[in-house]
Structures are given as C-alpha cells and as structure tokens.
C-alpha cells in the first residue's frame, strides 16, 4: 500500500476514534522511560548516563518497527498512535468553551492539561494565549513532524521521532535533576525537529496570512529560546495575526519571553481559528503527499 494512502487512513482513524483513552503505547513507553531514569539518573546525572538511557529507551522499539515495516496495517496503526489532531483540537475547544461561558477556573484547569506553565493565576487572556501557543507548537510535535519522519524513514523513523519527542517531554528540563541527564533527549529532539518545524511554519504561512507569517518568522523567531518552537509559533502567530509570547510562569519562576506575532491580543474565538489553521495545514500536507505519491 502506498505511503500516501497509509497517511490518509491514519488521519481518518484518528478523526473517527480520537486518542485512545486507555492503553496508549506512549503511556507504556513513559513507564519504561521512568524505570530507566530511576536506575540511571544517579548522583550528578552525567550526560553519558542520559545518552545511555536514550539508547536503551528507544533502540529496541526501532528494531521492532523495522521488523514490522512491511505490514501496512501496522503502519496505519502506529501512525495513528503517533499523531493526535483530534485530541489536540478537543483540548483546545474545551478551553474555548469554558472561556465563552466565563468560567475562568474551568478554563485554567483545561489548559493545564496541555501546557507546562503555571496556570493557577492566569487571566482569560493568559489562558487564551497559552492555549493557542500549545496548539501551534503541538501541531508540529503531534502531527506534522511525525508524518514527516514516517515519509522520510518509514516506521523506524516514525518510532524514533515520537519516542525521542516523548523523552524530551519527560527529561528535557533545565533543572538540577535533568540538567545533564536530559541533555541527550533534548538535543535529539531538537535535531529531529529541525526540518519539520520549518515545514510546519511554512505550512501555517501558506494556509494563513502568508506575508505576515513570513515576516514574523524571519524577524521574531531568532529571539525565541527554542530554535524549533520559535519558527513554528512566530509563523503561526503571524498567520493568525495575533500577539503571542510575553512573560509566563514556569515552576514558580517568571520566564521573560519575546513578543511573537502582530495585531491584537488573542480572544477566545482565536482558539478556534488556531485549530482551523492546523486542520487546513493538515489538508495541505495530505494533498501534497497524494500528488507526490502519484508522481513517483
């Protein structure tokens, strides 16, 4: 079965079923990763321990994916598990609904499920901004980068990316516990996202306000603290013509972040616009994949 058709079937499966509520493979992988971290992250947590942990965490699953790479049903199912457009949309819509009902406490609780920043003291605009930023960034992490690596390197590439991204979420913190141990996971995720993040940013520009998105990407992304999230979020903010970024609280500390985008601060309605931007970009990717599959 063609790669393009596998991508389409995986997206359709996600649209019908959504993210599995129980027994998601990434939850099981998270338990495996936590066991490795508890055993290997000892003392100062040196970089070599983190490198070893990443290898032990990911390599067995890559080999398993390589052995199954000729089975198209397995490919559809694994790609379905690796992407989450419906789940991302549902989380964002839940925040938007709470904001429209003027239920700020509910909105804070819902946004806390998709962001790592402190949400207890966010006002309505802060909740809105955090939600849109999460939608834009996770559009790359949970959709487009996974598809990119499947197209480029098949199931082994898909598994490598998704598990590396998960390890970065678990270990990629700059604190005393993970400063050195999490270095390998964070750098691997950065490397794997280098091209997909820029393709995602270009996709947002193509399905949004193109000139504004490119302008924000080129001028604002270099000042962002993440080399891959910067282009994605700057282009997304420009495509939506809203202002994102600015200071935020993480683990009790204020993180001063530059302004991204242009125009006005976002409102609750802009959350739906951000989700629609992701959907249009996904349709664009699928159309390109179909055309390329027909030409090759």
From TrEMBL:
The keyword Kinase does not apply. It is a multi-pass membrane protein. The chain crosses the membrane at residues 50-83, 142-164, 274-295. Signal peptide: none annotated. Keywords: Cell membrane, Cobalamin biosynthesis, Membrane, Transmembrane, Transmembrane helix. Pathway: Cofactor biosynthesis; adenosylcobalamin biosynthesis. One of its GO terms (molecular function) is ABC-type vitamin B12 transporter activity. It is found in: Cell membrane. This is Cobalamin biosynthesis protein CobD. It comes from Candidatus Thiomargarita nelsonii. One of its GO terms (cellular component) is plasma membrane. The gene is cobD. Converts cobyric acid to cobinamide by the addition of aminopropanol on the F carboxylic group. GO terms for biological process: cobalamin biosynthetic process. Its main location: membrane. Pfam families: CobD_Cbib. Belongs to the CobD/CbiB family.
